[in-house]
Amino acid sequence: MKPRAGVGLTTIMVVLTVTTGVIEAVSFLVLGPVFTAVQTGNLLFLSFALTGAAGLSPAAAGVSFAGFTIGAVLGSRFESIVDARGRRWFPPALIGEALLLGLGGVVAWRTGLDAPGASADGPHYAVVALVAGAMGVRNVTTLRVRVADLPTTVSTRALTALLGGLPLLSDTRIGSGATNEGRRLASVGAMFTGGLLGAWLLHEEVRPAAVLLVPAVLVLLLGTTFWAGPGPRTSEPG
Predict the structure, then answer these.
(1) Which CATH code is given to the segment(s) 2-233?
(2) Domain boundaries of the chain, sorted by first residue
(3) Is pTM beyond 0.85 here?
Protein backbone atom coordinates (compact mmCIF):
# COMPACT_ATOMS: atom_id res chain seq x y z
CA MET A 1 0.00 0.00 0.00
CA LYS A 2 1.53 3.28 -1.08
CA PRO A 3 0.68 6.67 0.42
CA ARG A 4 -2.04 8.62 -1.33
CA ALA A 5 -0.96 11.79 -3.10
CA GLY A 6 -1.97 15.05 -1.47
CA VAL A 7 -0.83 17.99 0.58
CA GLY A 8 0.24 15.78 3.48
CA LEU A 9 2.53 13.62 1.37
CA THR A 10 3.93 16.66 -0.44
CA THR A 11 4.73 18.28 2.91
CA ILE A 12 6.56 15.14 4.05
CA MET A 13 8.66 15.14 0.88
CA VAL A 14 9.58 18.80 1.38
CA VAL A 15 10.68 18.12 4.96
CA LEU A 16 12.73 15.14 3.76
CA THR A 17 14.43 17.42 1.26
CA VAL A 18 15.37 19.78 4.09
CA THR A 19 16.90 16.87 5.99
CA THR A 20 18.98 15.99 2.93
CA GLY A 21 20.60 19.42 3.05
CA VAL A 22 21.42 18.99 6.74
CA ILE A 23 22.81 15.50 6.18
CA GLU A 24 25.01 16.57 3.28
CA ALA A 25 26.36 19.48 5.31
CA VAL A 26 27.67 16.99 7.87
CA SER A 27 28.83 14.56 5.18
CA PHE A 28 30.77 17.12 3.17
CA LEU A 29 32.04 19.44 5.90
CA VAL A 30 32.84 16.84 8.56
CA LEU A 31 32.92 13.30 7.22
CA GLY A 32 34.38 14.08 3.83
CA PRO A 33 34.56 15.77 1.58
CA VAL A 34 32.07 13.09 0.57
CA PHE A 35 28.38 12.97 -0.28
CA THR A 36 26.06 10.34 1.13
CA ALA A 37 22.75 11.25 -0.54
CA VAL A 38 23.84 12.88 -3.80
CA GLN A 39 25.66 9.91 -5.27
CA THR A 40 26.25 11.70 -8.57
CA GLY A 41 28.61 14.06 -6.80
CA ASN A 42 30.06 11.23 -4.77
CA LEU A 43 30.85 9.17 -7.87
CA LEU A 44 32.67 12.17 -9.29
CA PHE A 45 34.60 12.52 -6.02
CA LEU A 46 35.52 8.84 -6.29
CA SER A 47 36.74 9.21 -9.86
CA PHE A 48 38.74 12.33 -8.98
CA ALA A 49 40.21 10.68 -5.88
CA LEU A 50 41.37 7.63 -7.85
CA THR A 51 43.55 9.92 -9.96
CA GLY A 52 45.23 11.25 -6.82
CA ALA A 53 43.38 14.56 -6.58
CA ALA A 54 44.40 16.34 -3.39
CA GLY A 55 41.98 16.47 -0.47
CA LEU A 56 39.76 13.62 -1.66
CA SER A 57 39.57 10.15 -0.17
CA PRO A 58 38.80 7.20 -2.45
CA ALA A 59 38.08 5.14 0.68
CA ALA A 60 35.40 7.52 1.97
CA ALA A 61 33.78 7.86 -1.46
CA GLY A 62 33.91 4.11 -2.01
CA VAL A 63 32.40 3.36 1.40
CA SER A 64 29.63 5.87 0.75
CA PHE A 65 28.82 4.30 -2.61
CA ALA A 66 28.83 0.79 -1.12
CA GLY A 67 26.66 1.83 1.81
CA PHE A 68 24.20 3.56 -0.49
CA THR A 69 24.02 0.51 -2.75
CA ILE A 70 23.36 -1.87 0.14
CA GLY A 71 20.72 0.47 1.58
CA ALA A 72 18.96 0.76 -1.77
CA VAL A 73 18.97 -3.01 -2.34
CA LEU A 74 17.75 -3.88 1.16
CA GLY A 75 15.22 -1.05 1.14
CA SER A 76 13.80 -2.16 -2.19
CA ARG A 77 13.55 -5.75 -1.04
CA PHE A 78 11.90 -4.81 2.25
CA GLU A 79 9.36 -2.45 0.71
CA SER A 80 8.48 -4.96 -2.02
CA ILE A 81 7.84 -7.72 0.54
CA VAL A 82 5.67 -5.46 2.71
CA ASP A 83 3.78 -4.21 -0.36
CA ALA A 84 3.16 -7.77 -1.56
CA ARG A 85 1.47 -8.50 1.77
CA GLY A 86 -0.90 -5.58 1.26
CA ARG A 87 0.58 -3.53 4.07
CA ARG A 88 1.82 0.06 4.16
CA TRP A 89 5.54 0.20 3.44
CA PHE A 90 6.04 3.97 3.55
CA PRO A 91 5.99 4.56 7.34
CA PRO A 92 8.28 1.63 8.25
CA ALA A 93 10.67 2.65 5.47
CA LEU A 94 10.95 6.13 6.98
CA ILE A 95 11.45 4.66 10.44
CA GLY A 96 14.15 2.31 9.16
CA GLU A 97 15.93 5.23 7.51
CA ALA A 98 15.70 7.23 10.74
CA LEU A 99 17.19 4.38 12.76
CA LEU A 100 20.18 4.17 10.42
CA LEU A 101 20.70 7.94 10.65
CA GLY A 102 20.35 7.83 14.41
CA LEU A 103 22.81 4.94 14.68
CA GLY A 104 25.28 6.92 12.58
CA GLY A 105 24.91 9.88 14.93
CA VAL A 106 25.36 7.70 18.01
CA VAL A 107 28.50 6.07 16.60
CA ALA A 108 29.91 9.51 15.79
CA TRP A 109 29.13 10.74 19.31
CA ARG A 110 30.44 7.73 21.20
CA THR A 111 33.68 7.41 19.24
CA GLY A 112 34.43 11.14 19.20
CA LEU A 113 35.27 11.05 15.51
CA ASP A 114 33.51 14.38 15.09
CA ALA A 115 35.99 16.08 17.41
CA PRO A 116 38.47 18.55 15.86
CA GLY A 117 41.48 16.77 14.38
CA ALA A 118 39.88 13.32 14.46
CA SER A 119 41.41 10.95 11.92
CA ALA A 120 39.55 8.89 9.35
CA ASP A 121 39.46 5.32 10.64
CA GLY A 122 37.01 2.45 11.15
CA PRO A 123 34.35 4.40 13.10
CA HIS A 124 34.59 7.27 10.62
CA TYR A 125 33.84 4.99 7.70
CA ALA A 126 31.12 3.24 9.71
CA VAL A 127 29.27 6.54 10.06
CA VAL A 128 29.66 7.26 6.35
CA ALA A 129 28.30 3.79 5.51
CA LEU A 130 25.34 4.09 7.89
CA VAL A 131 24.31 7.52 6.63
CA ALA A 132 24.75 6.50 3.00
CA GLY A 133 22.74 3.33 3.68
CA ALA A 134 19.94 5.46 5.08
CA MET A 135 20.03 7.59 1.95
CA GLY A 136 19.89 4.47 -0.19
CA VAL A 137 16.67 3.49 1.57
CA ARG A 138 15.42 7.07 1.18
CA ASN A 139 15.94 7.05 -2.57
CA VAL A 140 14.07 3.78 -3.03
CA THR A 141 11.22 5.08 -0.88
CA THR A 142 10.84 8.36 -2.75
CA LEU A 143 11.17 6.61 -6.10
CA ARG A 144 8.25 4.34 -5.19
CA VAL A 145 6.16 7.25 -3.90
CA ARG A 146 6.67 9.21 -7.14
CA VAL A 147 5.80 12.75 -6.08
CA ALA A 148 6.62 14.89 -9.12
CA ASP A 149 9.50 17.35 -8.72
CA LEU A 150 10.24 16.20 -5.16
CA PRO A 151 12.81 13.37 -5.22
CA THR A 152 14.16 14.73 -1.86
CA THR A 153 17.87 14.09 -2.58
CA VAL A 154 18.50 16.16 -5.71
CA SER A 155 17.09 19.46 -6.95
CA THR A 156 18.70 19.80 -10.38
CA ARG A 157 15.70 18.50 -12.32
CA ALA A 158 13.28 20.55 -10.21
CA LEU A 159 15.34 23.68 -10.80
CA THR A 160 15.47 23.02 -14.54
CA ALA A 161 11.72 22.47 -14.68
CA LEU A 162 11.13 25.58 -12.58
CA LEU A 163 13.14 27.71 -14.99
CA GLY A 164 11.63 26.07 -18.06
CA GLY A 165 8.12 26.72 -16.79
CA LEU A 166 8.61 30.45 -16.28
CA PRO A 167 6.07 32.60 -18.17
CA LEU A 168 8.72 34.08 -20.48
CA LEU A 169 9.90 30.61 -21.52
CA SER A 170 6.76 28.50 -21.18
CA ASP A 171 8.28 25.26 -22.48
CA THR A 172 5.21 23.31 -23.54
CA ARG A 173 6.94 19.98 -22.88
CA ILE A 174 7.40 20.89 -19.21
CA GLY A 175 4.29 20.85 -17.05
CA SER A 176 3.29 24.29 -15.83
CA GLY A 177 0.78 25.66 -13.38
CA ALA A 178 0.81 26.87 -9.81
CA THR A 179 0.95 23.38 -8.30
CA ASN A 180 3.88 22.22 -10.40
CA GLU A 181 5.81 25.44 -9.96
CA GLY A 182 5.10 25.40 -6.23
CA ARG A 183 6.56 21.91 -5.82
CA ARG A 184 9.64 22.81 -7.83
CA LEU A 185 10.23 25.98 -5.86
CA ALA A 186 9.72 24.07 -2.62
CA SER A 187 12.25 21.42 -3.70
CA VAL A 188 14.95 23.96 -4.49
CA GLY A 189 14.20 26.09 -1.45
CA ALA A 190 14.10 23.12 0.91
CA MET A 191 17.47 21.81 -0.25
CA PHE A 192 19.05 25.24 0.17
CA THR A 193 17.43 25.72 3.57
CA GLY A 194 18.62 22.34 4.80
CA GLY A 195 22.18 22.96 3.68
CA LEU A 196 22.13 26.41 5.23
CA LEU A 197 20.78 25.06 8.51
CA GLY A 198 23.31 22.25 8.70
CA ALA A 199 26.26 24.50 7.87
CA TRP A 200 25.06 27.15 10.35
CA LEU A 201 24.77 24.62 13.17
CA LEU A 202 28.29 23.38 12.45
CA HIS A 203 29.55 26.97 12.27
CA GLU A 204 28.00 27.59 15.69
CA GLU A 205 30.10 24.65 16.95
CA VAL A 206 27.20 22.28 17.52
CA ARG A 207 28.68 18.80 17.55
CA PRO A 208 28.31 17.17 14.14
CA ALA A 209 26.86 14.06 15.75
CA ALA A 210 24.09 16.19 17.25
CA VAL A 211 23.47 17.87 13.89
CA LEU A 212 23.14 14.43 12.32
CA LEU A 213 20.58 13.44 14.94
CA VAL A 214 18.32 16.35 13.90
CA PRO A 215 17.26 14.78 10.58
CA ALA A 216 17.10 11.37 12.26
CA VAL A 217 14.52 12.66 14.75
CA LEU A 218 12.57 14.52 12.06
CA VAL A 219 12.34 11.46 9.80
CA LEU A 220 11.38 9.27 12.77
CA LEU A 221 8.58 11.68 13.68
CA LEU A 222 7.34 11.72 10.09
CA GLY A 223 7.30 7.93 9.94
CA THR A 224 5.58 7.35 13.27
CA THR A 225 3.03 10.12 12.69
CA PHE A 226 2.15 8.81 9.25
CA TRP A 227 1.92 5.25 10.56
CA ALA A 228 -0.43 6.35 13.34
CA GLY A 229 -2.76 7.87 10.74
CA PRO A 230 -5.81 5.94 9.50
CA GLY A 231 -4.76 3.55 6.74
CA PRO A 232 -7.81 3.68 4.46
CA ARG A 233 -7.61 7.46 4.10
CA THR A 234 -3.86 7.65 3.65
CA SER A 235 -2.97 4.69 1.45
CA GLU A 236 -3.89 3.08 -1.83
CA PRO A 237 -2.81 -0.17 -3.53
CA GLY A 238 0.57 -0.12 -5.24
Answers:
(1) 1.20.1250
(2) 2-233
(3) yes
